[in-house]
Structures are given as structure tokens and as C-alpha cells.
Specification:
Length: about 400
């Protein structure tokens, strides 16, 4: 989980009028000291041939009425910017840019380095005539022109028409990249330049795509969800930056949810084992009688898919009403810890189980009425997912 700080300077704008830059976002309290161990929260993550670091401190470059554009500030020695950052002006300034360096042990193994300077830049958009000298306040978006076999992972923004330095960014060897998709429009400038937030196409537990934090610049008529710029790809299968058990417990204790129940709540949580021990039954299609579920659930069907042949129910005897209300003292928090965004983030999904979910209610004026069977079901899971930045920055 990261804390953010920014240096916001240079309140430039598109048309001479003052533009209010996004206010920096700050966590309400400093980050705690996490238990030591492994590579979690060390700042640098190895993804194969590259080490990457999240930069959350920015320098303002140029602004328009809808968005502002930034470059990373405080890039560590040896690391290189991959592109610039875009942010809507009406939202708190919170984001990141990934910077990268080549892992020394790989430099002699591969004939082609992982990172290379661009050969040149192509101008994608500007809000002024570049032939006029007084355009020092104009905004320009440049796409790096990479060597053959390399790809640009982001755009470079300048205030004024001067072409960026070839040292401004690095391009990445194409086999170390993954595809991106457009996910949300940040701003549409003059109905001619659409700025998009992107995300990896391959996400989830098995996805290797790593978001870089850069933006994509498309023309307004695009009907494709695919971004022009790709993202990074994680080739480190060891996931060294995953938190260990002690660190997971510390994260849950610090950031885990606090659950409050309505004073009139009837159906409370329990542990799954309490549910089994208090008469839960397993039913099979075309079979009249249910089978008592063993306390450890060892007689439940296995396979990992829902074939529609089995279901779980409350006991059909005097224990039914007792099972419905649950047992708060036995309730447990079930956690599923999994990698996200190519292993650079960790998702901690926390689940709470309720044996029964009562009917939905409709409120009329000051009175509430239960809708009989509408909404009722056996076994109700509620969850909260905490996404943790493994860089720890």
C-alpha cells in the first residue's frame, strides 16, 4: 500500500487562462513499519530482465482545462522513464509511473539490451502553430520512434515546440512487453485528441501484464479498445515480492474492514465449520433425502466446477431456525491472497460467511415489509478486497 507525495510546479495552461492543478492526495496517517522478510515493500521489483520502481512524485509540465501532464520526479540512479503521466484536474492527484533499469546479470546474456533510447520523436498533437515563436506555452505530445525490435510504452509531453531529448525516455525490447487496452477517457482536447487511461489486456492471477502508469493518445474517432502503447510483462515466475504470512497478517490488521451490523439484523455470520456441525445438508438432484455434511466437509463433491447436480441446504428439522441466525462467536475471516497486475500488486480478498440470507425488504414511509421469499438463499458470502502495492513506496 503506497503513500503519495508530489511536487507540483509550473502552472502552465493551454490558452493563457489560469488552470487549477489537481490537489495532491495524502494518506490520513503515515504507513506503518511492515514485518521484514523477502522482497515485499523493498521498493524495487525484478520482473526478469528489468528492475522496476513505482514513482509517485511528479513535476508538472503542461495543463489544459480538463487535465494536467507530469513527468516523474526523483527517479533513482540507473533507472529510466518510460513515458509521462496524465491526470484529470477535478480529481485528487494520485497515480504512479513505472521507471525501469536493466538487470546487470542479463546484460551479457542477450545480444539486444532490454532498454534503448528512441531514434527520434514524432509529433502526435499540438494546440498551436509550431512555426510561431511565441508558442512557448503550447502543449505538444510526442511519440518516441523506437529502434526495430523495440516499442515505446508512453508519450512525452513538452511545454513549447522544442522536441524532447533522446535521453528523456527509454523504449523496451518488444518481447518484454504485453498488450494494453483503453479503459477510461481522461480528457478530449479540442475534439481532436483523446487522452486515455490504459490497463493490461492480460490481468488476473495468471496475467503477466504490468501497468506502467502512462497514457495513450488516440484520435477521437477511434473505435478500437486496443491501446497504441503496450505495457511491461513480468517474466519472474517466483513472485519474490509477494508478502509472507506475517506481512499478510499485518496488512489485514492495519487495513482490514470493520463490519457493523444493524441493531435489528437477524441473520449473522458464522464459521463454515459451525454451519456444517449444526446440521447443514448436501442434496443431489433426483435424490429425495439430503446427506449430513461432515464437520470437515470431506464428503462434499470435488472438481472445482458447478455442474448443477448438488446444492447445500439447512436441516429439515428443529435445527433449521437455529442454523439460520448463525453464530457470531464462531465467525472467521477467510482470506485469499493472490498476485495482481503481473505480480507488482497483491490482492487480499477477505470473505465472511453467513448461513442464511433473509428476504429482501421494501420500505414505505417509516415502515419496512419483508418480501417473503424474494432474495432468500442458503449460504451468503460477503467480501472485501484490499489491493496492495508491493513496491511499498
Amino acid at each position: 500500500m503506497g503513500g503519495w507525495s508530489w511536487l507540483c510546479c509550473g502552472r502552465s495552461n493551454a490558452g493563457g487562462a489560469a488552470v487549477r492543478l489537481p490537489e495532491p492526495f495524502h494518506l490520513p496517517a503515515p504507513l506503518p513499519e511492515w514485518p521484514q522478510g523477502g522482497s515485499f515493500a523493498k521498493g524495487t521489483i525484478c520482473i526478469g530482465e528489468l528492475d522496476v520502481v513505482n514513482i509517485t512524485k511528479f513535476r508538472s509540465i503542461w495543463s489544459c482545462s480538463g487535465a494536467s501532464f507530469y513527468e516523474p520526479d526523483g527517479v533513482p540512479d540507473g533507472f529510466h522513464c518510460l513515458g509521462h503521466y496524465a491526470q484529470q484536474n477535478n480529481l485528487p492527484l494520485q497515480g504512479f509511473l513505472v521507471v525501469a533499469r536493466e538487470v546487470a546479470s542479463h546484460q551479457q546474456i542477450n545480444s539486444k539490451p532490454a532498454l534503448e533510447k528512441p531514434l527520434d520523436y514524432s509529433l502526435v498533437w499540438s494546440n498551436a502553430n509550431l512555426n510561431e515563436d511565441e508558442n512557448s506555452e503550447c502543449g505538444c505530445f510526442w511519440l518516441p520512434s523506437p529502434l526495430n525490435g523495440y516499442k515505446a510504452l508512453g508519450y512525452v509531453v513538452t511545454k513549447g515546440p522544442k522536441k524532447p531529448s533522446l535521453e528523456a525516455v527509454r523504449c523496451v525490447r518488444d518481447d518484454l512487453t504485453d498488450t494494453c487496452e483503453l479503459v477510461r477517457s481522461i480528457v478530449n482536447i479540442d475534439n481532436a485528441c483523446q487522452i486515455w487511461k490504459t490497463r493490461p489486456c492480460h490481468r488476473g492471477v495468471r496475467g503477466h501484464g504490468i501497468p506502467v502508469g502512462t497514457f495513450s493518445c488516440e484520435n477521437d474517432s477511434t473505435d478500437s479498445k486496443k491501446s497504441r502503447v503496450p505495457c511491461l510483462k513480468n517474466f519472474d515466475s517466483n513472485l519474490r515480492a509477494m508478502p509472507n504470512l506475517e506481512q499478510i497478517n499485518a496488512l489485514i490488521n492495519h487495513y482490514g474492514p470493520t463490519v457493523f451490523f444493524h441493531p435489528q439484523e437477524t441473520y449473522l455470520p458464522s464459521s463454515v465449520s459451525w454451519f456444517f456441525e449444526n446440521g447443514a445438508t448436501l442434496h443431489k438432484k433426483d435424490k429425495k433425502m439430503g446427506e449430513a455434511i461432515l464437520p470437515g466437509g470431506s464428503n462434499l463433491p470435488a472438481g472445482g466446477t458447478n455442474d448443477g447436480e448438488y446444492w447445500i441446504d439447512l436441516p429439515d428439522d428443529d435445527r433449521k431456525e437455529h442454523g439460520k441466525v448463525g453464530n457470531l462467536k464462531s465467525a472467521e475471516l477467510y482470506a485469499h491472497v493472490k498476485p495482481a497486475h503481473g505480480g507488482t500488486f497483491t490482492d487480499i480478498a477477505m470473505w465472511v460467511f453467513c448461513p442464511f440470507n433473509g428476504p429482501a425488504t421494501i420500505k414505505v414511509s417509516f415502515a419496512s415489509f419483508a418480501l417473503q421469499k424474494v432474495g432468500r438463499h442458503i449460504g451468503d458470502w460477503e467480501h472485501f478486497t484490499l489491493r496492495v502495492n508491493r513496491h511499498g513506496a
